[in-house]
Write a structure and sequence with these properties.
Radius of gyration: 26 Å
Strand content: under 5%
Distance between the termini: 60 Å
Largest sheet: none
Number of helices: 13
Helix content: over 70%
Structural class: mainly alpha
Amino acid sequence: MENADTSDLGDTSTGFSKTARGHGAATLAERFILAFRLPYVLGCIVVGFGLFGVFDVALSAYATNGDLSAAIAKATASNSLLTDLLVTYSFYAPRYMRQRLEEAGRSLSTLLPDRDGGFRRIFDRLASPRPQVITWIVFLVALLLAVNFSAIVGVAPPSIQFNAGPGSALEFFAGAYDIVSVAVATLGLSSVVWAYWSITRGIHRFGDSPLQLRPYYEDAFAGLRPVGALALSLAFGYFVFIGLFMLVIFASPSAPTTADIIGIGGFLSGLIVIGLALFFLPLRRLHRRMVGQKQEEKGRLRPRLASLFEDRSVGNDAGDLGHMFRLDMMDRKVASMAVWPFDVGILGRLSAIALSVIAILISRIVALFLHI
């Protein structure tokens, strides 16, 4: 059977109708893009760079000053295009995360007693509309507070202003379109946070489930390596989002005030802390189970090794050598059992990347304070 949800380029409308519920259903951001009935990546580009990017900025600028060339120049400026890239990526990232979830589910569902049904129940909140709408509203309010913190404390005019008041019909339309554009952009931005939050919470619930882990002689990761791959993929998608967000902020042509640094820096720092916490915390229970399984196998093997080393009457016949060889192999297998569902080296590299992002943010803030 053809899986219509595995291709970004060819999927137009079947992704969220595949299942009415569960992890196979699309998020609100995906449904919005799919409503244009375009290949998914193309739909993200049309929305992010076109309708609510270049067109929106050019329309707003032209309605304000009536200069078409100046409006086009503003819409194609580097900071404006970076914002468009952020919005485009934000609509694509939830799709990427959901597809990684479905790929991992093919292996992880076999560890659950009720297989696919249990896996869908664990991750079914991903497609729930109500929490997505709540996340959307909360994210919009938090973003508006962060970028307008200077205005709140009374040191600068608002960074985001909507000119939908009395004026010409074009000015009114441009102002209303600005409002719609901000709402659409924050739908994509909030969907990245929601998808990351929802799937990582699902990983936490997965760790509480009665799993049928693989024996150590079959898999050193007890069958849980797809969980680690999923967590790393989610973190990658999320921190690319954070990185693009930082580029947009740093590319702003206006010099930020101290209030801007506090508001926007606090907002980004909060997103980074959320990202790091949601990577480590949901995996702790799986980590404890893997540690417990390794200790249990060591406990079973220890008496057999002790009897081998303490029995001085062991001969050198083929049977004894074969027994010693098997115990040695078992000892090596048990020693190589993983205690995290991913390679620790990969974890170290991810931590280095995250710390680098934080260091860049801190250095930028310091540079702004010192006017370097």
